[in-house]
User: Which sequence fits this backbone?
């Protein structure tokens, strides 16, 4: 089944404790992206990647890191989480950047609470 | 501020009624898309309308686009309880990212 998976789905952590949220897609998509969703603010893009070893900042990259060593995986890293990073996180992918402008496939989301 | 702003923020209707939600945006776009999000789940792409199109249909969905007013509407006809979800518009402005609005929460009462 074609899908985008994220792990973990739920995470409670404490300020400053490094964490990684994994994202994997099995559709051979070149484009992958991370969003955060906060009440009243919609989805905001954190980082995106157009292909392996090619990543770039989105609208709200502060406090986050990403890597794209393999085509299928795009982990989101919070080196030192803070309470303002409490949010619902979505990974998304598409065949290409051009296709990403027309449709994206979303993972199920990761709900993060930073205490 | 958001490129896409949905209106209303929340909508409650009875099963069988039509649901209309609107999206306004600020800058010129290449296309506009509507996504659906069931509670606690990821977004699912519903329909795309390009800047040179005025209306598009897909099943019970009808989308209109008025580029002069920078607005779009999504109409769901003969709504069902299963249509209960949040609906988001997203715009492609030529940047390397879609810009999402804050969504309309639709509740369809059986």
Assistant:
């Amino acid at each position: 089944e074609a899908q985008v998976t994220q792990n973990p789905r739920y995470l409670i952590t404490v300020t400053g404790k490094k964490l990684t949220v994994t994202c994997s897609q099995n559709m051979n998509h070149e484009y992958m992206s991370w969003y955060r969703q906060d009440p009243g603010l919609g989805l905001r893009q954190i980082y995106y990647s157009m292909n392996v070893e090619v990543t770039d900042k989105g609208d709200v990259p502060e406090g986050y890191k990403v890597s794209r060593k393999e085509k299928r995986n795009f982990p989101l890293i919070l080196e030192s989480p803070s309470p303002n990073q409490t949010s619902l996180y979505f990974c998304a992918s598409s065949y290409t950047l051009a296709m990403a402008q027309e449709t994206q496939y979303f993972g199920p989301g990761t709900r993060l609470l930073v205490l | 501020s958001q490129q896409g702003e949905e209106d209303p923020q929340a909508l409650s209707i009875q099963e069988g009624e039509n649901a209309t939600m609107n999206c306004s945006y600020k800058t010129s776009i290449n296309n506009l898309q509507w996504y659906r999000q069931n509670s606690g789940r990821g977004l699912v792409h519903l329909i795309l309308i390009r800047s040179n199109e005025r209306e598009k249909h897909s099943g019970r969905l009808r989308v209109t686009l008025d580029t002069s007013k920078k607005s779009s509407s999504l109409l769901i006809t003969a709504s069902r309880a299963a249509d209960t979800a949040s609906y988001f518009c997203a715009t492609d402005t030529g940047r390397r990212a879609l810009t999402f609005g804050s969504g309309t929460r639709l509740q369809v009462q059986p």
About this structure: Chain B touches chain A at residues 2, 4, 30-31, 33, 40-45, 48, 88, 90, 92, 96-98, 100-103 (CB under 8 Å). Chain B has a mean pLDDT of 91. Chain B has no helices and eleven strands. The two ends of chain B are 35 Å apart (CA to CA).
